[in-house]
């Protein structure tokens, strides 16, 4: 029997904040096309933010409220999926680290706290590589959603931060697993001392986000141009993925030249996908293409926050 559909009442048609501009109080309207919003310095026209998704997919992942892309989905124990994702943290990521180091490029580790706990050697390599860390929740299955009790979600954030700090990894920002938030998440992050989050995919530059208990910087997210979305979910060819990134880089570079204002390219990549021996050459070609763009350089969270004119001007 299908679930009964409850009709909405007249209260759902009442929109007390409907007005000119935004119909909420989270952030002010922004004009990317006629107002400069980024300044990386005189010689940088394209910032490249490489977000390396370093995740742990539990074998008993709950799937509540949904299964994240890449999660074990076969009957327990799904050893095929679990061990392939484990491969990314034990093998694939080191190929990616070598490729970046060889080109003098930096990245941000979007790091599940339980990866730091379960793979202390990897945590040490991340520190030594000079990557900054964006706390990516407890693990890939620890989804933040409206069905959580506020105390439970607050405890999840606190535990994630504690586990990372135990490995001497101080988060520069936050990313919720699978880009999922509850209506409370920004406020709880701010209460926990987090000042930047990369969950909302509605801009290409940072902006000030009002949480109700203080301001948090909303950093650009990169779901659409991620390998898990293009290679895994859509089953596109590696050549097509490379072409997508090349097209994005060229377009943003041209816009930067036309407007006289730098642009920011975000790429979210997964070691269990791009660190495979048959794909790592593609990753290296992407880095070489990006490194060959005049005025392009890799940036991290602190660079992006410092470059934000929206945040700088209040």
TrEMBL record:
Alphabetized InterPro entries for the sequence: Glyco_hydro/deAcase_b/a-brl
Q: Kindly provide the name given to this protein in its UniProt entry.
A: Chitooligosaccharide deacetylase
Q: Name one GO biological process term.
A: carbohydrate metabolic process
